[in-house]
Design goal:
Blueprint (H helix, E strand, L loop, with lengths): L15 H13 L2 H16 L6 H28 L5 H30 L12 H21 L8 H14 L18 H12 L8 H14 L4 E3 L6 E5 L21 E4 L1 H17 L14 H15 L11 E11 L1 H8 L10 E8 L3 E7 L11 E6 L6 E12 L2 E10 L3 E7 L2 E7 L8 E6 L10 E5 L2 E13 L4 E10 L1
Antiparallel strand pairs: 1-3, 2-3, 4-5, 4-7, 5-6, 6-9, 7-8, 8-9, 10-11, 10-13, 11-12, 12-15, 13-14, 14-15
Helix pairs in contact: 1-2, 1-3, 2-3, 2-4, 3-4, 3-5, 3-8, 4-5, 5-6, 5-7, 8-10, 9-10
């Protein structure tokens, strides 16, 4: 009964001793358990009216700090997953994405209370710089988790993050040094905003989740070589207006001049990327000064660096071949095993054939509007076979770009790697191996083949028959690596 008339907050974390115990428990748990527990506590702290503004913000900051290492590890675990089931994948994404949404929502509630003059809210004024930084940082993390699934991005995202940045500018806090988390290097609110801008401008829809995770770390490394300025300069590549709800576009033409207009250029960053590519190639390792949060092999890092070099360059990437608009249905199957069955005439009823809408076509590929199924298998680097409406043969391709425009639809870019793929059953040192022949073999030349990742052994030739001819091919180099398949270049020793 006496508790009903007490002014003491009833929230468990309001007790310093209990808060210390719970925070230590979170910090010591595995990533999934820690994030799951933190989501519950963040939600309860953000929604407890019994907590004073300063106390609420302090608890959120401490929860955030206790969970930060596990949140980073969860992102790495999600990006590096290979054999996870669809249910496990969804579970990880729901946790990672949900945590940052919940944390941002709670932080924003604190800021809204301050702006509305909530009772005792002025006490948090000394923490405003850190609050702005954590808000933008949590939105940047949320952007990455959205990109892991290729979108869609919340249409309010850029208006919200831009508004927070402008609030920091108005308070003259945007360029003040800031220790965002204990033990990390100093940053600024402007740098955290610029990091989100660079991430958005780096065409992450062409990268795999693992490349997105490593790419975000690379962006952090190269961030000091970017500049966010008010002036129109020849070296400007992108522009953004934080006062408008739109992502940063390339500077194709001069935008409307407003007081909040900003430009950022990347020339110094591109020079540093080129220097890093040279160093990585020479030393066959990632330089010790680049913290990627985990071990990445050179074959994973170099393509991301090359991709950034192209995206950040002064001249925008140009299509190698012209695209022709078209409106036709497209049959689609995916996965090494399924594609092999269809090409060999062994397809069965359990194989799903999806129907997409083809929108454009070029010599090297095609673009299509995909219907995202419940299985949601679509991803960058997925192997597909496609059959345009009216055709009777399958084309072999690799998904190179994927943007989910909404939860059930997405735009897919497919690179065509063969217009006449052939399914073969090859003898690999006495082991029968399913393979897909991309090129017509010619003695003394090279021919590409698609195989399962564990089906290729150095020095072991592939023997198979196709079109009544016997072929003997020797593996030379792996061109594409994926958990589902590899594309390997073979030397054709004999074919006849």
């Amino acid at each position: 009964m006496l508790g009903l008339f007490s002014n003491k907050p009833s929230h468990p974390l309001a007790d310093p001793r209990e808060a210390k115990r719970i925070l230590a428990e979170i910090a010591g748990r595995d990533p999934q358990g820690a994030i799951e527990q933190a989501i519950t506590w963040v939600e309860s702290v953000g929604g407890d009216d019994g907590l004073k503004p300063a106390q609420r913000l302090d608890l959120l900051l401490r929860l955030d700090e206790a969970c930060a290492p596990q949140a980073r590890r969860l992102a790495r675990d999600y990006a590096a997953r290979s054999a996870a089931s669809r249910a496990q994948e969804v579970r990880l994404w729901d946790l990672g994405h949900g945590y940052w949404v919940q944390l941002f929502t709670a932080y924003l509630f604190c800021l809204s209370g301050y702006r509305l003059g909530e009772k005792d809210a002025d006490v948090i004024k000394p923490q405003l710089q850190l609050l702005y930084g954590r808000l933008i940082g949590s939105m940047g993390a949320n952007l990455k988790w959205d990109q892991f699934r290729y979108g869609p991005i919340d249409p309010d995202f850029w208006g919200t993050v831009g508004g927070i940045y402008l609030a920091a500018v108005e308070a003259k806090l945007e360029q003040k040094p800031l220790m965002l988390y204990p033990g990390q290097a100093e940053t600024t609110i402007e740098a955290e905003y610029l990091k989100a801008l660079v991430f958005q401008s780096s065409s992450m829809d062409k990268l795999t989740p693992l490349q997105v995770e490593g790419g975000e770390r690379l962006i952090t490394h190269f961030l000091p070589f970017f500049s966010l300025v008010h002036e129109v300069r020849p070296e400007n590549v992108y522009w953004v207006d934080p006062g408008k709800p739109q992502p940063p576009p390339r500077l194709a033409k001069a935008p409307e001049i407003t007081p909040t207009l900003r430009f950022f250029h990347c020339a110094r960053a591109v020079d540093e990327v080129l220097r890093t590519i040279e160093q990585v190639t020479k030393e066959c390792r990632v330089p010790p000064g680049i913290n990627l949060g985990a071990q990445y092999d050179v074959d994973t890092v170099i393509p991301v660096l090359r991709h950034f070099e192209m995206c950040w360059g002064l001249k925008p990437p140009v299509r190698s071949t012209a695209r022709r608009r078209i409106n036709a249905e497209l049959k689609v199957i995916n996965g090494m095993a399924t594609v092999h069955r269809h090409l060999s005439g062994r397809a069965f009823g359990a194989d799903v054939i999806e129907t997409w809408l083809m929108e454009d076509v070029s010599q090297g590929g095609l673009g299509a509007q995909a219907i995202v199924s419940r299985d949601d298998w679509i991803r960058v680097k997925a192997l597909v076979a496609v059959q345009p409406e009216g055709g009777d043969n399958w084309l072999l391709g690799i998904i190179r770009r994927y943007v989910r425009s909404e939860s059930t639809r997405g735009l897919v870019g497919i690179e065509t790697i063969s217009k006449a793929p052939r399914a073969v059953l090859a003898d690999s040192g006495g082991i029968m191996t399913e393979a897909i022949l991309i090129d017509v073999p010619e003695v003394g030349e090279y021919a590409r083949m698609v195989l399962s990742p564990n089906a290729v052994e150095e020095g072991i030739a592939l023997l198979f028959s196709v079109d009544g001819k016997n072929a003997r091919l020797h593996p030379r180099e792996t061109l594409v690596t994926d958990p589902d398949y590899v594309v390997v270049n073979f030397f054709v020793q004999s074919y006849g």
